[in-house]
Here is the input.
Amino acid sequence: MMTSKVKNRFELVVTYVLLVVISVAFAFPLLWVFMTSFKTPREYYSMPPRLFPKQFQIFHYKEAFAPWTINPTELSEATYFIEESAGRVESVLPNILNSFIVVGGSVIMSLLVGIWAAYALSRFKFKGSNAWGGWILSTRMMPPIVLAVPIFWMMGSLKLAGTHIGLILVYVLINLPFVVWMMRSFFDEIPKELEESVLVDGGSRLTCLFRLVLPLALPGIVATALFCIFLTWTEFMFASILTNSSSATLPVVLSWFRQDRGILWGQMSAVIVVALLPLMIITMVLQKQMIKGLTAGAIK
Amino acid sequence: MGQTIRYRRNILKNKMPFLYMAPTILWILFFMIYPLIFSIVMSLKRFKLERGVSFWGMKWVGLDNFKRAFADKFFLQSLEKTFIILVVAVTIEFFLGMCIALLLNKKGVRFDFLWIALILSPMMLPLIASGNLWRMLFDTRWGVINAAIMSIGLNPIDFLGNPKWSLIAVIIVEIWQWTPFVVIILLAGLRSIPDEPKEAALVDGATNFQTFRYVMLPLMAHQILIVLLIRSMDVFKTFDIVYALTFGGPGQSTTVVSFYIYRQAFTQFKLGYAATLSWIVFIIIYLMSFTILKFVKLKDVT
Here is the structure.
C-alpha cells in the first residue's frame, strides 16, 4: 500500500518536471523575442547571449513606430542604432492602420454575409442542408496557393490590386466557413421555442432573427469576430500579392525584415511583440471559443 | 388546437432557406469557384504576365504545362521536400502532442490552465513572425541555439546556411508551431472519454499502457483521424515559415511546393504554369486525404 503511494507521488513529480520542461521549451522563443525588443544591439550581438537586458530600452519601439521622436543625442549608442536601422526608418504605424482597416472590414463583412447561412443551417431543415454545410466547411481545406494565382490576376483586372478592398474580399472568403460553423453552433444553443412563440404571434422570421436571436447570440458573435481577427491578422500570402508598399499590412512588413544586409533584430522584435498583442488578448479572452473554432467540424 | 399546430408547422417549414444561404453561396461561387475555373483555363494556356499581351492573346497549349511539370526537376524536388516535412514533422508532432496531452490529462495534475497557456503560446504568433523569430534563434554568430551548442563543446551549426541542416531547421519550427494544435485536439479527445472503461480495464489487471492502447486509443480514433488529416493537408500550405526563415534556400534545399509555386507565379510571373502546378498539388492533397479517410475507416472496422 505504502509503496504504491510512493510510486504515485513519484509519478506526479516526474509529470510536473516534464510539464515544466515542455512549457518552457514552447514558451521560450516568445520570451526571447520579448526580451530582445528591449535590448540594445550591443547586447543582442554578443556571445554568449543573455536572456534579460541589463536595462529595458524602449528605443526599438520608438524606432519601429515613431522614428521622428528619436533624438540622436539621446542615447550614447544612438549612432550605432541609427546606422543599424539605416535600411528602414519608416514607421510601421500606417501598416498597422492598414491591418486594422482590412481586418475590421473583412470581419464585419463576413459576419454580414455568413450569419444568414448559419441561421438557415441551424433552424431550417431543407433538402441537402447537411451537404451545404459540409460544402461551406470544406472551402477551408483549399490550399491558398491554388486560389492565389487566379485571384492575383482577377484582382489585377478588376483594378483592385493594391487596394484594401481587394484584400477584404479575399479575407471574407477565408472567414466564411468559420463564421457559418461557429455561428451555427451558437444559434443551436438558443432554444427554438422562443422563436416559435414569436412566429405564432404573427411575427416574421426576420423579426425573430433581429429582435430575438441575434441579441441572444451576441457573445457568440463577439467570439466569432475575434476568431476571424485571429485568422486574418496573421494572413501573409494573399496580403503579399494583393498589397503594395502603401497598403501593406503588418505581416507583409514583417516579411520585409528579411533583408540581406543588417538584420534589425531589435526593431523586428518590437514589431513582432506589437503584432502579437491583439492575438494574445484574444486568446486570453476566449480560450474556449478559440478551441471551438479551431476544431470546427472536428469534434462533432 | 389542431389548426394551430398545423399553422405552426407551416411557418416553421420555411420555403426560402436558400435565400438565407444565398449570400454565402454566391460569395464562394464568385471568389472561389470562379477563380478555380479560371485557374483551369490559365493552366491550359501559355499564360505569362508580360507587357502588351492580353488575356485573349495568350496561346492555348493544351496539356503542355502538365507535361512540363512532370519533367520539372525543381518542382519534383519541392514535392519531395514537402513529403519529407509531412512524414517527419507530422509524426513527431503527433507523438509529442499525444505525450503532452496525456501528461496534461493525468489525474492529480494541477494548474493545467497555466501549462496549457504556455504550451499553446506558439499558436498566438503570426507564422511569418515565427519564421523571423527562429531566424534570430538559429543565427550562427549570435543565436541562442548555437550558444547552447557551443557551451557543451560542439561546433556551431549553420542551420540556415547549410543545405544539410536547413530542412531540419524548417521541420523544427514546424513542430514548435503546430504541436500545440495537436495537443488541444487530442486533449479534447482524451477528456471526452468517460472514466468507466478505463477503470474497468485497470481493475481487470491491464497495465497503463494496455489501457491506453486498447481502451483509450480506439475511443479517440475520431480526433486522431481529424488531427492527422488537418495537419497533413496543412503541410502543403507551408509557406510563411519558409518565406521568413530560409526563403527556400540555401539553393533549393527548403523550397517546399507552395513556395515554389509562389515563386513561379509572383517573381517569374508564369501564372499559367503556376496554376498547373497548383492543380497538381490540389489533386495530390485530395487523393491523400481520401486515402487517409479510407484507410482509417477500414481500420476502425477490423
Summary: Chain B is about 75% helix and 0% strand. Residues 70-301 of chain B form a domain with the MetI-like fold fold (CATH 1.10.3720.10). The mean pLDDT of chain B is 84. The two ends of chain B are 53 Å apart (CA to CA).
